[in-house]
Amino acid sequence: MGSFLGVPIMLRGAAFENLYLTEKTGGEEFSEEGEEVVRLLAAQAAVAIENARLYESAMQWSRQLESLNEVSEALTTESDLSQLLQLASRSLRELLDARAVIVQLPSPDGLWLTIEAADGEHAERLLGLRVASGRSKSGRMLMRMRSERIDSLIDDPEVDQTAARLVEATSALYAPLVVRERAVGVIVALDKQRTGHRFSDADMRLAQAFANRAALAIDLSERVGREAVRALLDGQETERSRLARELHDETGQALASILLGLRPLEQQLGTEPLV
In terms of C-beta density within 10 A (0-12 exposed, 13-18 middle, 19 or more buried), how is residue 101 classed? Predict the structure, then answer.
C-alpha cells in the first residue's frame, strides 16, 4: 500500500464508521487539502446517516401511533372486563414485540395483585398467579404511578421473580394503569423478542401511552358495569313497588267485594246471633 488516508464518521461524538482512501493516483501522498475534503465528506456522510436514522425512527413511531389508535378504538368498544384485559395484553405484546405481557389487578384491600390476563409464552401458567403488593415491583408501581424499564430482573431486589421464572425472562417494562390519579392495575411486558431482550426508552414511552388508554377503557368498563348493576337494582325496586301497589289495590278490591257479598246475607239473617 503506497498511500493511505482514514477519517472517522462521527455520530453524536462517537465514531460510527471510518472512511478509508488508499493508493492515490501516481503513488503520491495525500495532502492536507485532500484530508480536509475527506473530513468534509465524512461529516456529510454522518449527517446523512443521522437523518436516515431519524426518518426511520419517525416512521416507526408513526406506525406505532397508528396501531395504538386502532387498539384504543378496540379497547373502548369492549365492555366485558375480562375480554378487555385479554385484548390489552395481546395488543401491547404485538406493539412491543414482547415474549409475554401480563395485566395485574389489585385485590379490594390492596394487599395482593393477581394476573387477570396474559398473552404470549406460558400465558396459561401465568393466569391467576398472585403476589403480595408490598413485596413486588408491580405493587410499588401502583404507589409510584410511573413507568419503569428493568434491564436485568434478577438484579432488581424489588422484583417478585415468580412470573419472570415461568417465562425465563431477563428484562421487563412496568406501566401502571392510572386514571383520575388512581392506579387501577399494572401491565407488564416481559423480554423484547429482538435487540437482546432489552426494551428501549421508545418502548417505555409507547407502553405508557398504551397504559393510559387501557386504564381509561378499564375505568369505562367498570363504570358501565356499575351503571348496569344500578339500573338492574333500580328496575327490581320499581317492579317490587309496582307489584306492591297492585297487590294492595287488588286486595282492597277483593275485600270490598267480600263485604258487599256478605251484606245481603247479613240482612237475611238479621241481627240475632246464631245459636
Answer: buried
Do 131 and 138 contact (CB within 8 A), yes or no? yes
Give all domains of the chain, ordered by start, each with its CATH number. Answer: 4-58 (no CATH), 98-221 (3.30.450.40)
Contact 113, 104 (CB under 8 A): yes
Q: How many CB atoms lie within 10 A of CB 164?
A: 22
pTM of the model: 0.64
* Each residue's pLDDT tens digit, 94-142: 889 999 999 999 999 999 999 999 999 999 999 999 999 999 999 999 9
Pairing, β 112-120 against β 130-132: antiparallel
Structural contact between residues 23 and 1, judged by C-beta atoms closer than 8 angstroms: yes
CB atoms within 10 A of CB 134: 11
